[in-house]
Amino acid sequence: MSQAGSHAPRSWRAALREKEKALDHSASALDGQTDIPFREVLRIFARALSYMRFFKARIAAKFALVTAEMVFRLLVAPWPGKVVVDHVILGLPIGDAAGFPGYLAPFVAMLADKGPVEIMLWVFLLGVFMVTVFGFTTSRGTARSASGMPTGASAASSGGATTMLTHGHGTLAQGHDAATQTENQANRGSGLMGGLLGFLDFRLHLRLTQSLNHLLRTQLAGRIKRLPMTTLDDQRIGDSVYRVLYDTTSVSLVLHEVGLEVYSHALGITISAMIMYTYFGSAPEVIVLAAASLPIMLVFVVPFARSARRRSQASRASGANTTSNIEEGMSNVLAVQSLGGNRRERQRFRNVSEESFRRFRIESLLKLTYGQAGSLAFMLGQVLFFVVIAGRVIDGTFTAGDYFVLQYYFFVLSATFAGAGFIYPVLQNNIAGLRRVFFLMDLPSEKAGDGVDLPRIERGVAMRGVGLTYPDGRQALRNIDLEARIGEIVAFVGPTGAGKTSLAYLAPAFLQPTRGSVKVDGVDLLDVSVDSLRKQVSYVFQETQLFSDSILENIRYGKRDATEAEVERVARIAGAHDFIAALPDGYRTNLGTVTSKLSVGQKQRIAIARGLLRDARILILDEPTSALDPKTEAWLVDALHEAAKDRLVIIIAHRLSTIANADRIYFLEDGEIREQGTHEQLMAIPDGHYRSYASLQAGAR
Fold first, then answer.
1. Is 456 within 8 Å of 532 (Cβ atoms)?
2. pTM summary value
3. Which residue from 168, 322, 514, 634 has the highest number of Cβ atoms inside 10 Å of its Cβ?
4. Are residues 301 and 199 in the same domain?
């Protein structure tokens, strides 16, 4: 590729990096807002619904069960009450069953010559069938509370499994704040039915909810781990945990409260209105009264929607702040105790915890306010119905049994309209959680699979004119030119803050240069897939990273098929074998139980052994001997020279004894390479930076 041709892609990619930085900055600013524009609400809602495509079969089955239950409940359930009132209690003759729907005429005609006791027996058998299969009673409605839960008759007859789970009276304890309720939401099984079909419906909904939440949790957790280091540095761990565990459950509530509720409401309104118009057309005002519940409910509830959304967002942000405070306190517990900061940390936690509860109280009060307003509107419709229909029964237009049926359909219809009015504010609460989830998912991530696969590295790393500026404007590196070849030990040396670690981070693409190019075997890393690069790079960090697993599995984390003999070999090289063998379970010792009992040096040796074991062409060690004794350091230096025969070894170190025999030393200061060469060459430079640095270290001894 010509020089001119190589610049064009780089400038394009540089522009792309700048665009991504701008997006990152704007996203961070947006995440701090508690208000969400209506257009964004619609966008988040549509994005949440798009996840339903992964569960088409389950959702289709769920809708089929909802349809079956709604159809049977609305077409059949109320009519046995008319039979009992008119033809058992009042003793009216059944005649030709003209007052009943055609699809029930055969059953009613069969009762024409039966006495009251026989009629009650048949109604009882029908009731047993209804309860056994569907698990509901004729008093069921679809009214909703401010939180979206069934209320009144709906709650009383919503089926055993559903009632236990959604109201906290059974298998799952129910908390109050957003965090403690999420375990219920993530494992929510819900439906309008009980009985045999209710059991099937509950199991189906439970699996659907869990699968949906599992998918979003997994995606978000994976996305967080693919964020660039510059982004992760600005993201608090506790806040990320809160979003993964507590905010992701909002997606299942969107499915239930919006998807299923809208469908069931639409179906209920259609069937109820059809029945009422067909069989009670002489009282059209009943339908009008029921339909009026929707605008009345909207007038009472919608004005609170925006405030509900803002309060929910603020409540979640405050809860995340509490989680972050706990995480930070546990991570820094030794510093807190050693510096006498216990009282200060208690006060910090008390403040954030109190703020979290205060914001939740405001959110709860708001929910209670518009919930009571909605209930008032719903009850107003019930009073008007009673006034209108009671007069029609008195004047003989309808029988007492007709009143029973009409009251049922009116209750269903008005409750459905009223429930539809609650959908929007309930949606706002869930949108606030989903917005926090999608914010993290939309942050620019590393391009793991984009670019060409890097073949086996044969030559090494070259940097030309490299500069690095962090998002906060801090310039870490400038005018970096270096070469590091396979078969060499290359050392980065310099005072603290000189840019050594930032420079080392460029090789495995933990950081991307803002100027210049980083190439491996002549291929610009901007054109290489990150995964294929890091398969050939092993990085041992200055801060030891160990997992809650056995020492054996920790060492072979980067090479899962390594034998125990190979693990023991690198452990001996790193000087870790003796103390590992002295542990009760040896290499099988679980670090989750004894990590605190290992010294910093012991942990560092395990990490070094892990880096040595991995079959990587580039091995980078950040201060590998800072916690090692001189004898172990000498072993390690000899091992590194042996390892460098077929790989590139990059060492960041302050100890001259560690890097004195390096093939090339780069001395950094203020983000620039001041000098380069072997130890002897650099020491031969009069008044050289490296020589002065070495003299200071020698004097310190």
1. no
2. 0.68
3. 322
4. yes
